[in-house]
Amino acid sequence: MKTDELRESYLSFFEEKGCVRRPSDVLVPRDDPTVLFTPAGMNQFKDQFLGVGKLEFTKATTCQMCLRTGDIQNVGVTAYHHTFFEMLGNFSFGDYFKREAIHWAWEYLTSKKYLGLDPNLLSVTVYLDDDEAYNIWHDEIKLPANRISRENEHENFWPAGAPSDGPDGVCGPCSEIFYHPNGGKDNVEIWNLVFTQFNRVGDPPNNLKPLPKKNIDTGMGLERTASVLQGVRSNFEIDTLKQLCLAAGDVVGTGYGFDKPTGRPLRRISDHVRAITFSIHEGVNPGRDKESYVVRQLLRRALLEGYLLGKQEPFLYQLVPAVVDIMQTPYPEIAKTVEHVQHTIKEEEEQFLGVIEKGLTRFEGFLKKAEQEGKSEIAGEDAFDLHQTDGFLIELTEALAAKNNISVNRTEFNNLMQQHKEGSGSGAFLDSVMSEGPLTALHKTTSDTQFKGYETTVDEGTVVGIIAEDRLVESVVEKGHAHPVVVVLDQTPFYAEAGGQVGDTGYLEGEGLKFEVVNTQRNGGLILHIGHLLEGKLEQGQTLKATVIEPRRSGIQRAHSATHLLHHALHTVIGDSAMQRGSKVEQDTLRFDFSHSKALTPEEISQVEDIINQRISEGASVTTQLMKLQDARNLGAMALFGEKYPDNVRVVQMGDFSIELCGGTHLTNTGQVGLCKIVNEEPVAKGVRRIHALTGPKALEKTRNSEKLLQEIAGQLKAPRLDELPQKIAHLQDEIREMKKQLLKFSSKSLAGTADELLDEAPVVNDVKIVAYHAKDVSRDQLRELADHLRKKGKQVALILGTEIDGKVALMAAVNQELVKQGLKAGDCVKAAAKVVGGGGGGRPDMAEAGGKDPEQLDAALKTGADYYRSQLEG
């Protein structure tokens, strides 16, 4: 059975059992602060497991994209470890329980209609005290006792060890199913059935309290089960991943074979490139923080594998089409971002190859240091410095060290890495999965807030929840609240911040009561009115008049409708690859992020602006309708990749040129935007650009201010007409250039004199003059000129110069060519000095530059540079 066939077979089977087939959740859940990436199938069903909100179905089945990095060292080494993988699952929220879960799992695995596995090659485990599960397996499934193993809480409980070690909260025993191919010699775990039936409260004993509603959460690894069905010895040999491994071998130029020495690194490359392709597709580019950092590390590890195989140029980006080829049947949308994903990967590859090139010099220094000290290993501190400061991955340091017949003190390195993680609080995933709080409690006692703001900005609603000082309260009186109060109504015209559109502001009013709403947010299905009680007493059950500030809402709607026009204009000017990557919509102000590899030209910006305002002048109708998600996609509605959409979506259409999925508030025709003015275009991340624009009154104000500014400049330059400004400015620039030439002549003479003074006063070590000088009020060019004067005037000179420019440090080191031949390197000097001022840099052995952030340490940095020269010359 092919992998795509297995996925469909599983989902169809559980649909036949009454489970609702749900699409995979996004890989990067933006609305879940507890995880960076979706780690399991149950993640999208947290509210259902907790009984939060309206329960639209009681059992479900999914195939979920997942990403975990906890076992990254085992990827490509073992048969079954991955970072990105797919998890098949079936779930129950107070519906079926152990008997059905076990019987259905056995039926699906052994029935000839489905997987048809030999029952004699299957065994199971159950939790030590779970007699219920044991009896179902033994008495009903008729599995022999010798194929049922009872395991402790660390092996067969979720979370592992929960009864003794916690955490408190929902938990339960589990039952794992194993397949034993080759007559039982091998052992493959293919399915885990979790029976969440307890609420852990406090320490043992008697700390597991039965839940009123028992749940089922199962997980079957798609790739692992496919390997069993296809009779191969590794997940990487199944029909999909084998194809990717072969492509990786072709691109790297080594060819792929499972047992070849290159097999392991090519498997790692294949795994990681699949993970980063899906992550970047969802808008997570390589970077320094959170999920972006994980993507960067996966990309660099994959590139490093190829680098060590001799592929010392960008190559990962070439594998993106191969990833799309094997994954587009279940996830067809990834085919739409190939160009953007490739560009982003290639740019990061080029950057990291530059990091490697720069880091090689420092590595050679540490290698030389180890040799001089007579050691057979590079210090863990040095390897950590390379890894953390220079981005020189430890795997590369170890590989290069091995080529020079020495090792790396990995124990010391690991200790330093652990200290760094603890100090920075970093980690791939956060610990908390489910948490109780006032909002969770409110979800259990009230229905979702009904939003009436599409039709009106004034309505009445009943108070169903009040949160003050982080707890649910019955009432609030005016005074004494250090933090804002949260009010939840049964219905409201207030729009809660979502989709880039900011939340509404306004007032809630009743008899003798006034509450100012300063922000509106959403938590699940609840709309939260956040603000301050100005007068009166706020109580549960009150009916209040809810009034949105209309002028602000109108300005937000102008800006929001303009983002759709901007998206349309970008597609027209630069193509469909300009996909939306985010937005922020405020009152007559918008910013719009889109995928594009380079800055827009002034001509392109003008074209985009012209198209937007042309659509505004047409006064095209803006219509909205609610429909099924798949119907909207069939209609051609644009959606944000990586965004989580409900089953029923709101579709906003403008004329016959724009149709998008959008839950925000909009105008009724494009002419109401009035005017749109682009004010800025800039980069925000690799392959992502940002446009800032104004609409309505703010756009008009911006235009008038620009005209006023031009008139003032024309007056100062004595230009009677605005069209004479370019000529006047060109004349001034000519005058400035001439004055700079004259000034340069005087400064060159001054620098030559300074060089003479410095050489006369310089200390001498082994016939070499060492110059360390803090120059004041000079440019980088003048610093270079001074360095040239010193080298020309001094027969044997080693210099380190520094100055402060715009609050930052500029350093320059240089030595004569004769000293380079003797092993003295300006680059090593300037790196040592740069560390003192919190910076870095490098360059040629005879001349090198660096920068830094701490001008107060400049003199100390110059002394460090001079000391470096002295130690090298005396040594």
Automatic annotation (TrEMBL):
Residues 722-749 form a coiled coil. One of its GO terms (cellular component) is cytosol. Its EC number is 6.1.1.7. Its cofactor is Zn(2+). It comes from the Bacteria. Pfam families: DHHA1 (PF02272), tRNA-synt_2c (PF01411), tRNA_SAD (PF07973). InterPro entries: aa-tRNA-synth_II/BPL/LPL (IPR045864), Ala-tRNA-lgiase_IIc (IPR002318), Ala-tRNA-ligase_IIc_anticod-bd (IPR018162), Ala-tRNA-synth_IIc_core (IPR018165), Ala-tRNA-synth_IIc_N (IPR018164), Ala-tRNA_ligase (IPR050058), Ala_tRNA_ligase_euk/bac (IPR023033), DHHA1_dom (IPR003156). The keyword Ligase applies. One of its GO terms (biological process) is alanyl-tRNA aminoacylation. Residues 1-705 form the Alanyl-transfer RNA synthetases family profile domain. It is an enzyme of class 6 (ligase). Its main location: cytoplasm. Keywords: Aminoacyl-tRNA synthetase, ATP-binding, Coiled coil, Cytoplasm, Ligase, Metal-binding, Nucleotide-binding, Protein biosynthesis, RNA-binding, tRNA-binding, Zinc. Binds 1 zinc ion per subunit. PROSITE patterns: AA_TRNA_LIGASE_II_ALA. Catalyzes the attachment of alanine to tRNA(Ala) in a two-step reaction: alanine is first activated by ATP to form Ala-AMP and then transferred to the acceptor end of tRNA(Ala). Also edits incorrectly charged Ser-tRNA(Ala) and Gly-tRNA(Ala) via its editing domain. NCBIfam families: alaS. Consists of three domains; the N-terminal catalytic domain, the editing domain and the C-terminal C-Ala domain. The editing domain removes incorrectly charged amino acids, while the C-Ala domain, along with tRNA(Ala), serves as a bridge to cooperatively bring together the editing and aminoacylation centers thus stimulating deacylation of misacylated tRNAs. PANTHER family: ALANINE--TRNA LIGASE, CYTOPLASMIC, ALANYL-TRNA SYNTHETASE. Belongs to the class-II aminoacyl-tRNA synthetase family. This is Alanine--tRNA ligase. The lineage of its organism: Bacteria, Pseudomonadati, Planctomycetota, Planctomycetia, Planctomycetales. The gene is alaS.
